[in-house]
Amino acid sequence: MSETKRITRTCTINELNPILSSAIRAHIKQYQLGEIEPSILMCCETTSVQQKKGFFGGSENAISAAIVTPQWLIWAESHSNKIAEVNSALLSHIEVHDYAATAMGTIAPDTGMNINGRYTDAVKTGQAFIGLGADEGGGHFRQVLRETMAKVETDN
Question: Of 24, 78, 138, 140, which shows the fewest CB atoms inside 10 Å?
Answer without folding.
Answer: 140
